């Protein structure tokens, strides 16, 4: 059974106003005193958690919950609140860059794209045999990535307004020249050549700026799936992770059978991204996700996750994901405090 690891990015805000606050270094230090390592993101209002290498679904749920609570406690210790939201719901004044040489280089080269970040996603690592397999798996993942985005959508309210999208984060994220669906490549050599061309053109500072929604990890023997908003709840993150693993398992099975990856044009794929970012779990998406889970059934059953995935998908469609919660809170009376309260409750649910 392939192992899984999950990275979640969180926003740090003022508990009263909901304004992003530049406390990531202090919060990371406070968390380290509790035995939890938090990573610093590009902007100083964000921190990132990372689970260990896990196989069991229940262990993953327990670890994600533990890390969320530990990070939230560290944030409170520093006068901040931890929110699992993919974008700040309030009107941020600015996003200071975290004080490292590399982050300053990124900010200097990419300007306002970097300075208007505050973007929080979720990255799922799934074990694969080698880098060639990872590249081929990414080819199979391309048409499935928009559905993972729709499931996790958690950025409907931005700058104290309904953006009109369930995931406005994904729309803003496309501004990076190295973001979006992974390129078509059939080997690690071909993939590395594409990355080298991007670096030579200046569109990437280094291979750490490979922001494609699925990529071979530079650090681990995994495929890293990066399409999702940070989900509102730990349970939603677990569902995302087991579906991501099932996608990789299904892709590996197809590759072993000698089946070619489905061909899909860049324009059609980006249209699918746009539609899933706009609709989230509304419109036709629930039916598409139900069919998606059925397509992944052999892998989910092999992992013992099929019944759980079916039940969780049904529950989330009924209760709503992060974007739907945000909109329900906003529509009560148009008060951003209701959105912030709902987000805070979901983060530690």
From TrEMBL:
One of the GO biological process terms: modified amino acid biosynthetic process
Recorded catalytic activity of this chain's protein: L-cysteine + L-glutamate + ATP = gamma-L-glutamyl-L-cysteine + ADP + phosphate + H(+)
Top enzyme class: ligase
One term of GO molecular function: ATP binding
Pfam families, alphabetized: GCS2 (PF04107)
UniProt-listed InterPro entries: GCL_type2/YbdK_subfam (IPR050141), GCS2 (IPR006336), Gln_synth/guanido_kin_cat_dom (IPR014746), YbdK (IPR011793)
Domain of life of the organism encoding this protein: Bacteria
EC number: 6.3.2.2
SUPFAM superfamilies: Glutamine synthetase/guanido kinase
Keywords annotated in UniProt: ATP-binding, Ligase, Nucleotide-binding
Function: ATP-dependent carboxylate-amine ligase which exhibits weak glutamate--cysteine ligase activity.
Homology family: Belongs to the glutamate--cysteine ligase type 2 family. YbdK subfamily.
HAMAP family xrefs: Glu_cys_ligase_2
Full protein name: Putative glutamate--cysteine ligase 2
Taxonomy of the source species: Bacteria, Bacillati, Actinomycetota, Actinomycetes, Mycobacteriales
């Amino acid at each position: 059974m392939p192992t899984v690891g999950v990275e979640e990015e969180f926003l740090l805000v003022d508990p009263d106003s909901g304004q992003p606050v530049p406390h990531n270094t202090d919060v990371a230090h406070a968390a380290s005193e509790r035995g939890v390592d938090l990573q610093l993101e590009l902007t100083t209002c964000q921190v990132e958690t990372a689970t260990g290498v896990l196989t069991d679904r229940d262990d993953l749920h327990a670890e994600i919950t533990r890390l969320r609570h530990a990070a939230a406690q560290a944030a409170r210790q520093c006068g901040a609140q931890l929110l699992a939201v993919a974008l700040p719901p309030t009107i941020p004044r600015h996003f200071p860059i975290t004080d490292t040489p590399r982050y300053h280089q990124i900010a200097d080269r990419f300007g306002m794209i970097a300075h208007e970040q505050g973007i929080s996603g979720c990255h799922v690592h799934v074990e694969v045999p080698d880098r060639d397999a990872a590249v081929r798996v990414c080819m199979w993942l391309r048409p499935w990535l928009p559905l993972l985005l729709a499931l996790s959508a958690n950025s409907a309210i931005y700058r104290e307004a309904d953006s009109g999208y369930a995931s406005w984060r994904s729309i803003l994220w496309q501004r990076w020249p190295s973001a979006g669906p992974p390129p078509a490549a059939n080997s690690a050599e071909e993939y590395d050549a594409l990355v080298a061309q991007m670096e030579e053109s200046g569109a990437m500072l280094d291979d750490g700026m490979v922001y494609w929604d699925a990529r071979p990890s530079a650090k681990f023997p995994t495929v890293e799936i990066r399409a999702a908003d940070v989900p509102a709840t730990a349970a939603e993150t677990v569902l995302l992770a087991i579906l991501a693993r099932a996608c990789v398992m299904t892709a590996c099975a197809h590759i072993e059978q000698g089946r070619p990856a489905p061909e899909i044009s860049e324009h059609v794929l980006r249209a699918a991204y746009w539609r899933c970012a706009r609709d989230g779990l509304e419109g036709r998406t629930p039916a598409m996700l139900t069919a998606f889970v059925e397509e992944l059934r052999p892998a989910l059953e092999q992992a013992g996750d099929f019944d759980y995935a079916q039940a969780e998908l049904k529950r989330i469609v009924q209760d709503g994901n992060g974007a739907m919660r945000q909109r329900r809170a906003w529509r009560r009376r148009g008060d951003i405090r209701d959105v912030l309260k709902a987000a805070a409750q979901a983060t530690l649910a």
